[in-house]
Write a structure and sequence with these properties.
This protein is an alpha+beta fold. It contains 11 helices and 14 strands. The protein has 2 domains: 177 residues, no CATH class; 186 residues, no CATH class. Helix 2 runs antiparallel to helix 10.
């Protein structure tokens, strides 16, 4: 009889013990698969939500002596005679090594004008990029759809008594207020937002920008490297990472990863102990059988192979079942953790990893029992007869 047939017959005769062994290892594998899948989905969800918080990199001209603050950067007080950078330089960002990590680039240009005898600040923006960058904006009225429409900040609207549909003259051009921002608690409340190209032409800054905000965070994006790469491509600009925002985002993701590693290590330890104890007990119960094998001419290597083949069969079954159970558990539990559930699919890489992990744990945990069985003295074993 071949060794694998002996191993299979042994498992068949001990169905209850085999089910217990498969269940113990399967629970460990399923827990690890569910944990890894959950952490991946939650990390992607957190990264997606954090990306909605706004920019984490700011590009400004290299200039000094500015006092007005916008977005954490100085832009000047009364005078906006700033050095600017060329808008075309932003195209170079698409050529950096980590260009795929750059999600949004929102260029801006500033201008001062007078309205009703008071000075006001206009900000030219690329509305699609700006609205994508600032998803928390809530606009009363409509989003601008033409070059003659603007959006007014909450405080500016109250100051000049403006509402959706109002007409505003900025320098020599008339604009219609398409919408008014609800209060954001930031300097956006004091601004007049207009299309970038219109602002550049109106304030004689065609082809120039005063700054650009960049959202470049995704899962494990190297923010520091991205800043360096942009600085090398645009030497005339100062590129700054908003470190507090970046650190808080990355800390959250790293904490999830650390937690998953700790739990996975604990589960691996418990799973290996279950296999070890069960296989050791099985060897002790089969003293007579092992003694007979030795007496009829089985070598030590043959006995070890029988025990390890049993562990291999159990491990493969545990890995496959554990992967399916882990994916199913994640599918059921995920709606309780996030509203945005990623599309579930049978990931071949995770499946292979689960089976391989189960095999490694099963064989390592069974190695000592198999060695102990192979070293068993046939005469001592046959005394039990």
């Amino acid at each position: 009889m071949k060794l694998h047939n002996i191993a299979i017959n042994n498992l068949r005769r001990r169905k209850a013990k085999m089910v217990f062994l498969v269940s113990g290892l399967m629970i460990g594998v399923a827990a690890i698969v569910a944990l890894i899948t959950t952490i991946r989905i939650l990390s992607e969800d957190i990264a997606h939500k954090m990306d909605e918080f706004g920019a984490n990199i700011v590009i400004t001209p290299k200039s000094e002596g500015l006092s007005l603050n916008y977005g954490g950067i100085n832009l000047g007080g009364v005078s906006f005679d700033l050095r600017e950078i060329s808008e075309s330089d932003l195209d170079k960002i698409e050529t950096i090594k980590n260009a795929a990590n750059v999600r949004i680039i929102s260029p801006k240009v500033f201008g001062i004008f007078e309205h009703q005898g008071q000075k006001a600040l206009a900000l030219g923006v690329d509305f699609p990029a700006e609205l994508s960058l600032k998803r928390w904006w809530k606009i009363t009225g409509e989003k601008p759809s033409g070059i003659g429409q603007i959006v007014v900040g909450h405080e500016a609207a109250e100051r000049f008594q403006l509402k959706p549909g109002s007409q505003v003259r900025i320098l020599d051009k008339d604009f219609q207020v398409s919408g008014v921002l609800e209060s954001t608690g930031s300097q956006d409340d004091q601004l007049f937002f207009m299309p970038l190209t219109v602002a550049q032409k109106l304030f004689d800054k065609e082809g120039k920008i005063a700054m650009a905000e960049v959202a470049a965070l995704c899962h494990n994006c190297p923010i520091g490297e991205i800043v360096t790469q942009i600085s090398e491509k645009i030497p005339a600009a100062k590129v700054t990472a908003l470190q507090q925002v970046v650190a808080s985002r990355m800390d959250a993701l790293h904490n999830f990863q650390k937690f998953s590693l700790m739990v996975a290590a604990l589960i691996l330890l418990v799973g290996s102990m279950v296999v070890f104890v069960t296989m050791m007990g099985s060897v002790n119960e089969r003293t007579r059988e092992i003694g007979i094998f030795s007496a009829i001419g089985f070598r030590k290597s043959h006995i070890m192979k029988i025990i390890l083949l049993e562990a291999l069969i159990v491990s493969v079954a545990s890995g496959v079942i554990g992967y399916l159970v882990g994916i199913g558990a994640t599918r059921v539990a995920m709606p309780f953790f996030t509203e945005h559930v990623s599309h579930f699919s049978l990931d071949p890489l995770v499946a292979v990893g689960a089976v391989f992990l189960a095999i490694v744990i099963g064989l390592i945990a069974s190695l000592y029992p198999a060695t102990a069985a192979s070293k068993m003295d046939p005469s001592e074993a046959l005394r039990t007869l």
